[in-house]
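Long-time lurker, finally posting.

We've been working with SmpA / OmlA family protein (Winogradskyella jejuensis) and I want a structural starting point before designing mutants. I don't trust myself to interpret raw outputs, so I'm hoping someone here can both generate the structure tokens and explain anything notable. Sequence follows.
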Amino acid sequence: MKLRLKRKDQIGFTFFLAFVISTSLIWFFEERFNQEIWHTTPEKRYEMLDDILENKFLVGKTKTEVISILGEPDKNLISEGDFFVYDLGKPPSFFDSEPQYLLVTFENEKVVKLSKAID
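Top reply, 14 upvotes:
Generated this for you. Predicted structure of SmpA / OmlA family protein:
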């Protein structure tokens, strides 16, 4: 007794398998936030941006806690009041890419919003 799939089923199975493999590879190679890499390799920070925004682990933290995790906000940028701005570097691109920044918004001394800003 041999299992034979219809042509439509074979095509559907192939697309499903390709989807599972590609999703797994994207997840496997996605850069997770690493405090040591954040501090030692600032030009690679853009790789960790998705993890920071999706997991929102900074939301609810105080300014002191954010500084202990991410370091001092970049001095070259406007980093005063209820906003901290961190330079993420330039992601690789076929065209001239623009610098990206992590914007940390505070209300009542606690992080309420994280967002990506482009220069």
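Before you design anything, note these points.
Residues 76 and 95 are 25 Å apart (CA to CA).
The mean pLDDT is 82.
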